[in-house]
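so the lab meeting is tmrw and i was supposed to have these ready like two days ago... anyway. pasting both below. for each one the top line is the aa sequence and the line under it is the structure tokens. i havent really looked at them closely yet so no promises
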Amino acid sequence: GIVSPPPTAVPTGAPTSAPTGLPTPQPSPAPTSHPSASPAPSRYFLEAALVAHYGMDGGVAVDDHGPFGNATYVEGRTRKDTALDGTDALNVTGARKGVRLPAGVTRRILGGRERGVCLWARVDKWRKAALFGYGAAATGGSATGAPGKPEAFGLAVDDDVGFVALDFGDGYPVKAEVPARAGQWHHYCLVYDDGNATLYYDSVIQKTTKIALNTSNSSQFHLGAGLDGADALDGSIDEVYIYEEALTQDAIDLIYSRVTSPPSSVPSPEPSSMPSRAPTSLPTGVPTSAPSPMPSSMPTTAVPTSKPSAPPTAAPTPATPEPTGAPSEAPSAMPTVEGLGVAGTLRAVALPQACDDAAFLGAVEAALVAATNASRADVRCVGYAWTRSDLYWGRRLQGSEGEGGKLPETAVPTSVPTSNPSALPSPKPSRGPTAVPTSIPSPVPTASPAPTSLEAFELDYRVHASYARHPAIRAETFDDEVKTMINAAIERGVFVDVFNKEKVTAEVQTVETAAIYRTVAPSPAPSLAPTTTGYRLAGILSAEVVGGDEGFVEAPIETLVNLTKPLIVKLKTRPSADVAVTLTAAGTGSALRFYEEDSKRPGFALASDPGSTTSTKTIPSNTTTLTVIAGALRDRVNSGTSFSQTVEISLDSEDPNYCCGRHTASFELEVGDVDTSLISTGKFLSKVPPVTSGDGGATTMKLDENAATYQFTVSLTSKPFHRVGLEVLGDVDAFSDITYGDVDERVYNPERLVFVDPDDWAAPVTWSFHIEDDDVLDGNRNYKVQLRAVSNDTNYDGVTSATLTCVVLEDDVAF
């Protein structure tokens, strides 16, 4: 550092007799009247509970808050639109199944957990359509007669204009009438908390209903569509907020009136705040007889003694970066300390920007150290990333463990000069009067008004202790002990005392969770060389299908074993005990299956294994790799050229590094779809396979005129998303009548469609075409008909069957 020059033997003379002149009583020039600043929008209001935010900037659905980014899937197309406030919105009219969000979006808003979803929407075509939805259709009651719990959560508009429906998977039984009409932007929020679901329309409560949700993860979150992409919306969506807490009326008011409203286009011509007032007291008079010795403006260092009392302690080397690979040679030895850590969550109340406030986070860390006698603690808000130095427990070191040891103390002048002052005293008083304001207030506001309300946050914490400091630590109970110590500290007021000392406005309320894990950290002893010990943190290194998505297609069960692929999960470190790996498949149709590997055909499924959408396999101790065989069972749903399936992975083990589901991962697979939406027709009781229009063939039947009833079987080739109506085209008038049905035969009316329900798509229905016998000698003749589909399912609408040709053989003769 810089050392001050040695002091003179005697201080310099007394200062001048009087200080500078008095300040003016009021600032000059006088400021304008109180300003009025437009509140700046804040996209991260209530950020601690925010799961994802899709602002639709550029007309693209991107999570600009959390980790989900642009991992969305659209079948069809979307385009950029203009929102109510003139910013960008997302038009979903061309997306046949809306916009599907990543599976992780719903991870913390399933079951009966509280939640809230808010968005702006403009409905261009008012019909039955969903604004958003996820989960599954409500299941039936139990064997005891108790009704099943609704397993979906969503919001939709009904066929009747002005009606909004709350979708819990039970067919929209809860509806509310609102003054919305087609082509209008309005704000919708659906909130669930403690058995109550509440609909807010333009920030006003429209409907509250009691319901016990048990939302499943069967269908991912869809924007502009409902479960599995059904009931797609014709319209636009903007400013989608997804929360894992139930929003209050005040919060929704802010989101509706401030968060999503644009700032004023022209700044206010007046400043955002008044300048400081004139000093309230006059400056002190002439200084006392002898000035106090003042420290020099430059930092000083004490003159060392002639002989050090002890060798200086070397400063620890800074944390080395995490190695990117195995070192080329063995690192030099470095003493290490085996330790134990506890990770968990705290619930706290603080100012809205506390997550970015180093004083608040540092105070919580200091309180945790005081509560647990740990060697250190780290804290972050849930949803924030740990910094690289956090991985070394080095973001904020406590006490003497800080960088460079304790902070230097600021020198304070004494009232009487010492015999050997450390610096030359100043010839002037140490503190003069307050300076007169000289600058004119800025015409442009520089900041929004400071928030005064408090908000709730969830904090991730990590407490680290070494065996050297706590030799009696028992790994089996350490997490419970730490949780107990923190709770006791909260009750004793330890956190309050630390917050008061640090002048932090906050309160820690409860310890939510605690989980244990082992660590190996460098000891405080310095080293001249880096070490790789302990830097490879436990976790999932990778999870992927060998060869990627290419060639991964769905198939019927009889051929699926030949179309499977290996899925490999790798861990970052070798576990000390077996690790149970649970894989779960989710997505449209849930076609993905996991199989046992055939030992005789590595990389292929065992033919006798029926497969499952959930599978738990084991990675043996001291190994890092697991291979599971994955395949896509044909689901008979036409999802386009491909559809997405999500693989979710979680770990559990007796090894503390991999226990308790601490490590999770997910990734998406694109599966090639082989299903088609066609009409299949075949001859009744014939062994000849049915044909479709896609086969390019036709079905021909020849009969004598006196027994001419032509019977064909008709079915669909895949499950439709909406019911399908069938009509007969062609030589309809040539037949005396047309009937359909097997048990309950009905006469076909050309003015009405014959409907096929989605659940009956595969059941063949017999159609009969009757020719009336006559006495006219008119020779052999051909009559041709086709069946055409009419449906809200765009895959089926307008599809025609293969041509059905009825050949009438003349049996009349001339005498």
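ok protien two:
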Amino acid sequence: HPALSTLPPFANRISHGPMKLSLSLRFPPANPPIAAIAAAGLAALEKPTGSTVLVRPDGKAKESVLVLTSPTQGSLVVKGAEAIERCVSRFAPGVYGSGDGEDPMVGCQIERMVVFAQELSQMDEKAKMAQFSVLNDHLACRSTLCGYDLTLADCKVWAALLADAGCVKRLSKGSGVIHLKRWWDYVSSCSAFAQAKRALEASQRKKPAPKKGGSFDIPLEGAEMGKVVTRFPPEPSGYLHIGHAKAALLNDYFARTWKGKCLLRFDDTNPEKESQEFVDNIMSDLKTLGIKHTPPTTTSDHFGVIAEKAEEMIKKGFAYVDDTPVELMREQRMNGIESASRKMSIDEHLRRWGEMKKGSEYGLKCVLRAKISMTHVNKCMRDPAMYRCKIQTHHKTGDKYKVYPTYDFACPIVDSIEGVTHALRTVEYKDRDQQYNWFIEKLGIRPVHIWSYSRLNMRYTVLSKRKLKAFVQEGTVEGWNDPRFPTVQGVIRRGLRVDALREFILEVGASVNDNMMSWDKVWAINKKKIDPVAHRFLAITRDSKVMMTITNFTEPAPVSAAGATTMDVQLHPKNKGIGMKKTAIGDKIWLEAEDASLFTEGEEVTLMRWGNCRITKITKDSEGKITELKGALNLMGDVKKTKYKVTWIADAADGSDAKRQPVSVTCVEFDHLITKPKLEDGDDYKNFVTGCSRFETHVQGEPALRNVRPGQLIQLERRGYFRCDKALEPGTDGTIVLFNIPTGKKKSMSSVGSKVAMKR
């Protein structure tokens, strides 16, 4: 390469004048112009005094753009990687070999090397490596490719090699190309090339897959790290359901994200509906959900302050006591008609307020109302109620108070008092947000940010606590923790894992869009959680079974069982670490009658978790019903070649060994409580209650089921997943009760019959 011979060092590169220039290079992050960025790095070191160089990725840029600005000549816009490289290099002429005192041959060598680099960038990995020896020889007595300093030639060749992972790997070792490696290490270590390397690494970084469904990653207005305070304010008038779980997890999520805190406050403003039972169970459910909250408070803790604020509103003329009959008051609000009480004096309203606080006969007829506007377009602003008079014992304050604030009046006051920064409310409260802010303004208390999100609705599900309570009181269900209920306790008793519930809520997200979700999605997430850990067991239908006699049971292993009474079997076929179980075996076993009806003599079938067995004889009665089978074990047989894989249990009719006795099991399946996917306004839910939503199947299970404990999630092979609701006490007989866990599939996973599926 005679044209690449050693040349004298550069003279003064920046002696071309005091002109102040501004260079701005913007590029798309996914396609950075590596050589141009490297050249800009050199130009930044060599730039004329007073000039500036700015290089940055631009997520909105579709292509690389260079803007060169002169205070006297305006701006020049350059597009295209090659044009940008040359323009950037000329910004500091020495980078292009055209500085004052430069030998013209340097510029020519740079041009030749630039062309070589362009060809190099088009080569595949193997062809590039073939050029390593050429470059290595060229650099034997040189530190840079052209001249004595780094130029555009170095930028271009370095960029061409950097883009190929195979080349980078070989250069890191340097085997056989020590001069090229020396140059590579030198260039790569230069600060001028650092941004180019980072840009390439960023473009190659895998982007996280977009989240399915919704997201909680929504900014909170006015949020400051460490200062966000949210609150979860349940009314203790029922158990928490899946909709409340979303609200609780949402408040907990934002508190954790912003390193703040989540308050738990019981909204106990309606003594007619509340009880300590509900308080205790809400606390238990929040613990189950893993919600991190402050020690609980109650709205009733602030009843005294709230009453003082109410009296303050009366004295300021912002509230009045109305004795209008309820139906007439409702009609007046609808039609925008003012009550006759509205214009009475403040003294009269204070007198009436006194009657309300005493709980007198007259006071019971009165309501304290906010004086806003009876013609407001938002009907929630038409003089809403603030206080009602009730002679009802409160579960916490007893008979101390005869007046109780409405949620709408108490909430902004207590939020402000307790330091809440962000009140998260479902969109159904949107029309009442004006009311919330009006109370804060008139009382002159600290404002709170309101943030709205959609409520969670589930198909074929009632979430109204009033209706759920009616189901309980009418005996339609056995209680608030009934596995058909959408309560936290209900779905967990059904077999839903807490981590699956949390994942579902996070996928639903925190947007304001309506959520009408299917339970199938919930159970599909749950199945992924339980399948890897659920212990497997065998069971057959109690009243539909056929005995098979194994004629070669006592013959030696490995073809047969050599007369053994038990065998060790993994509790999970794909996870030996979970443990082992003892499975009873014998020369007489029970099979599903439905399975037996499919067999033919001479056919080989697989006895699950044991091995193959050849059907040698099928005996039928006069009606063609199979009464007995005979078979011969072939434990060395290929289970992949059999058509039928069937469940079975060993017979222990002689009762000689209690540990071999089958276990009585009741498998319970559940259907939806209502028959309509979504109840519309005006629908009476009672007209859509499912006639029968609980189905039982009695089965006999293998003896190892005696070890299953309450709450454990298991799988009965070919029947599905179950949660143990009632287990056997050690050393006792009885019946295990298992609740079937849905999997989210339209078709039941059970291959031996599902009563709910048959009904549908």
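from a quick look at the 2nd one: The longest strand covers residues 611-620. Confidence is low (pLDDT under 50) at residues 1-18. will dig more after coffe
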